[in-house]
Task: inverse folding
């Protein structure tokens, strides 16, 4: 039997409390209190504490007839996340709150602010160190979620030991905070600027393709699985990043940290939408013995040339074979350049029409060893479609967290609080599955 529940919680929580001084409130009471708070969908901690004081049954379920007040609940969030929402007033706040782009994108269009090189460097970092950039707050909260629900769900058979299919996707999480801050008094600083308090110093701007507008806040990214027998979706890993970070980068760090923290839940398949369609990501998954099931995008700027000569070199519009100019192994392609620019021919009838720069036109030919084009499960095959159907579980998890458990209605500002609440929403989703399993077995 795996170590789970109370034993793991004791090991985790005890490290966050001092062994001397006044005894702290029982953390088990606060854990139950937050779990029930999200179960009853009460957004405000103050409203929840008032509700508990008037309901003996809820007090019994929490395990205390004297449940701590709102201040102790807020202190518990700070203790678990390690982040104080009210930093030192002398802390210099960087000016990061201007929109990077005020132009509206097309309907359904994603904001592409990354390159394959960014994905490649991130994959290399996590291949050398799976725990790279591990955030203290998110690591603690995820370890709490693992011990409370993920490991018990695996023990119950809700998460399969073999053939596990995991899916990942991000969702916009609005911070409900002003990116411009709030003036706290009429005094000014040394550079004649007013004193300003920022209620969300760790958020930034991102594009919400569903609402078709810019928003200030974060991206909540989950990795989940689907249980076809019970017909339930289970969140396995949650992470919170800045709104400007593209899902392709978040997916790399999320799947790497998930596998690092859950060695007993190694996925057989990883299901993602076209936002994660990057060749380095395929290589990263293959090197971790995971089969990628990823929808391919249509925004490629380096389409395969239509005509090739006998040696495999592209033929330009004037009918000349282009010149090989290097092999990009990370992108699995060979680069070719204009023969006129490189001095291989003396003249070209299309020189004026196609030469837009001194560098000349370039073309790329894919190599046969590209992992994107050599998949164990062929793209869009019948088997691929059956497996990919389970990807919708991650979208349903986002809907449950944001809407069913009213994450947006909490009007939380700090990223640490958002992550804390999202983890307890995920815990409740697992407990809903336990209840369904128990009722079906009766």
Result:
């Amino acid at each position: 039997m795996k170590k789970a529940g109370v034993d793991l919680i004791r090991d985790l929580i005890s490290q966050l409390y001092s062994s001397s001084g006044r005894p702290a409130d029982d953390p088990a009471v606060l854990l139950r209190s937050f779990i029930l708070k999200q179960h009853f969908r009460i957004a405000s901690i103050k409203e929840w504490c008032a509700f508990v004081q008037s309901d003996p049954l809820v007090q019994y379920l929490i395990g205390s007839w004297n449940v701590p007040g709102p201040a102790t609940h807020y202190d518990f969030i700070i203790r678990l996340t390690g982040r104080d929402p009210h930093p030192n007033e002398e802390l210099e706040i960087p000016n990061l709150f201007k929109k990077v782009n005020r132009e509206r994108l097309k309907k359904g269009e994603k904001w592409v602010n990354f390159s394959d090189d960014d994905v490649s460097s991130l994959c290399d970092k996590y291949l050398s160190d799976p725990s790279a950039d591990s955030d203290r707050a998110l690591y603690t909260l995820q370890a709490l979620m693992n011990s409370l629900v993920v490991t018990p769900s695996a023990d119950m058979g809700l998460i399969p030991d073999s053939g596990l299919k995991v899916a990942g996707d991000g969702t916009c999480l609005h911070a409900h905070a002003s990116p411009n801050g709030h003036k706290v008094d009429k005094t000014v600083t040394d550079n004649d600027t007013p004193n300003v308090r920022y209620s969300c110093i760790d958020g930034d701007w991102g594009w919400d393709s569903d609402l078709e507008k810019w928003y200030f806040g974060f991206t909540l990214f989950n990795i989940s699985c689907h249980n076809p027998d019970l017909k339930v979706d289970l969140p396995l890993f949650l992470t919170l990043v800045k709104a400007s970070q593209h899902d392709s980068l978040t997916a790399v760090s999320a799947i790497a940290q998930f596998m690092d923290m859950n060695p007993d839940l190694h996925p057989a398949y990883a299901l993602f939408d076209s936002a994660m369609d990057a060749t380095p990501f395929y290589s990263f998954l293959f090197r971790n013995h995971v089969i990628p099931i990823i929808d391919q995008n249509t925004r490629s700027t380096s389409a395969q040339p239509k005509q090739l000569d006998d040696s495999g070199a592209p033929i330009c519009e004037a009918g000349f074979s282009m010149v090989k100019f290097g092999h990009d192994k990370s992108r699995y392609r060979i680069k070719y350049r204009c023969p006129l620019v490189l001095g291989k021919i003396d003249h070209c009838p299309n020189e004026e029409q196609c030469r837009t720069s001194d560098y000349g036109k370039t073309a790329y030919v894919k190599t046969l060893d590209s992992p994107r084009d050599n998949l164990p499960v062929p793209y869009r095959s019948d088997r691929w479609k059956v497996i990919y159907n389970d990807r919708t579980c991650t979208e349903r998890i986002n809907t449950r967290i944001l809407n069913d458990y009213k994450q947006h209605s909490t009007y939380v500002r700090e990223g640490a609080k958002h992550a804390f609440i999202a983890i307890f929403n995920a815990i409740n989703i697992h407990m809903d599955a336990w209840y369904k399993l128990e009722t079906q077995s009766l």
Q: What stands out?
A: The CA atoms of residues 65 and 138 lie 31 Å apart.
